[in-house]
Amino acid sequence: MASSGLDSSGLGVRRAVGFVAPALLLIGVFLVFPALWTLYIGITNYQLTGAAAANPQVVGLDNVVEAARDPLFTNSLWLTALFVLGSAVIGQNVLGFGLAWLLRTVRPGLRRTVEGLVLLSWILPSTVVAYLWFAVLSRDTGTLGMLLGSPQTAWLVQYPMTSLIIFNVWRGTAFSMLLYTSALAAVPPSQLETARLMGASGWQTVRDVVFPHIRGHVLTNTLLISLWTANDFTPFLLTAGGPNHQSEVLPVLIYRQALEGGRLGYASAMSMLLLVGNLVIALVYLRLLRRRA
Amino acid sequence: MSPLWIVRRIGFYVLITLVLAFFAVPMLWLASAPFDSKPGLGLRWPDWTWRNVVATFDHPYALTSLLNSLVLCVIATVVTTVLAALAAYALSRVRIPGRDLLLYLLLLLSSVVTGTAAMVPIFVMMLQLGLINSQFGTALVIAGGMLPAAIFILKDFMDAVPRSYEESARVFGASPRQVLSHVVLPVARPGVATIFVWAFVNAWGNFLLPFLLMRDVGQQPAAVLLRTLYDEGGSANLTVIPVFSLLYSIPVVVLYLFVNKRYGFRFHGGIKS
Q1: Domains with residue ranges and CATH for chain B
Q2: Which of A81, A109, A129, A228 has the fewest C-beta atoms lying within 10 Å of its C-beta?
Q3: A interface mutation test: which of B69, B77, B116 has the most A CBs within 10 A?
C-alpha cells in the first residue's frame, strides 16, 4: 500500500484511466478533432457545393490573406471587439459588481427578487429571449417605443449594435453578479468597518479596500465573459448580422459564409482566427494569474 | 436622518427600481402575449383568451419538438454528468501520469474551443458520418462541448470530499465500486446535481448545434422550431410563438426554482480567484 496516500479510493491507475477514457474520447472526437480539422479546412478552398466540394485543393494561407483584405471580415472584427468591450468587459462587469455591492445591504426579500430576475434572464433559452427582445425593440408596438413615446423607431434596424450590447448586458450580467457576490463575501468585514469609520466614501472603499481582495476574481470574470461574448451566437437570433452587415459579429459572419455562402474553407480560416484569438486571451490570462500567485 | 441621508436613500431605491425594471420588463411579454386575443411583438394588457393555447397544442410540430428537446437534452445531460463524474473522481484521487497537463489542457479547451469556432468541421463531420438529423449524434456533440467544463467544476467538488471517508470504508473491506456508489457519490451529490442542472439548462437552450445538425422539421428540438414558426402568410406565427415560448421556458424555470430552494444559487468552491 505504498501509494495509499495518493490513491485513497483504491482505484489503481489502470481503472482510473478507464474512468477518464470515455470522457476524453468524446472530447477528442467532438471538440479536439473538429478544432484541428478547422485548421486543415482553413487552408483549403473547400465548398459546400460545386467542384471544390468533391475535390478541395490546398490553397495555403490564401484564405487568411483574403480575410485580412475582406472588408466584411475587418468590419466584423471591429464589431466583435466593440461587442465584447461594451457588453462584457464594461457592461456586465460593472453592472454585475454594482448589483453584488448594492444588494449586500438591502432587505432579503428585495434582494431575492432582483437576483431571481437577473438569473432568469440568464437561464431562459436564447430563442425565447430573442422574442422577448423583439417585443421590447420592435417598431410600432415595441415596449421601448411605447415607454419613450416614439413608436416609429425600429431599434434593431436603426441602432443594431447598441441594441445588441444592451441586450447582452441584460442576458449575461447574472454570472458576474454571482461571481462578485461570492468574492465580496471573502472581503474581511473588519476592513470595511474600518474604512467606514475613517469616513471613506463608497467609491474609496471599493477602490482601496475591496478591489485588492478581488483582483483575481475580476480577472477570472473578465476572461470568461469576454470569451463567451466573443463566441456568442445569439446576435444571429436578434439581427442575423443585418441590416447590411452592421451587426455581423464574427460568429454570425462565419455561419453566413459557411452555411449560406457555402464557402467552408474560407469560413474555417475565419474560425481559425477566432480560435487563435480565444487562445491568446486565455494564455494572457493564465500568465497574469500565475504572476499574481 | 439628515437630508443628505434621505436623498441618498431615495437615489438608492430609484437605482434599484431602474435595474429591476430593466430586467423585468422584457419578461412581462411572456406573461401577457400567450393569453392575449391579438398577441403582438409588444406589451399590452391582454384581452384574455385560451385560443392561443389550443392553437399551439393543435400545431403539428409544437409538442413533438418539445419531446425532441427532452430526448436530446436528457441524452446530452446524462452522458455529460456520468462521464464527467467518473473522470473527475479518477482525476481527483489517482495521480495518472500527465494528469496536471491534462487538467491544464481541459481548462484551456473548455474556454477556447467553442461550438461557434468549430461549427464548420462539426457540420462536415456529421454530414460525412450520416449523422445529420440524428438525435443521438447531436446530443453527443453537445455533450462533448460541455464535458471539459463539467469535469473541471466537478473535480473541485470531488477534491472537497474527505479522503478519510473512503479510507475507512476500505478498511471495512468495501470494493472500489462500493466506495464510489455508497461513499463518494452521496457526499458529492450537490456537485453532481449542480453539473446535472447546468448541463440540462445548457443543452435545453442550445440553438446553434441543433440548428446546424437537425435539418428535418419533425426531428427538430424546440429551440430550432421556435425560430421557424411561420404562418401561411410567411410572417412570424404570433398565435403559437408566445404560448410555445412559455411552454419551452417552463422546464428551466422549474429547475431554477428547485435549485434555488434546495441549494441556493451561489458559487461555492467552484470558482477560484
Answers
A1: 3-49 (no CATH), 60-262 (1.10.3720.10)
A2: A109
A3: B116
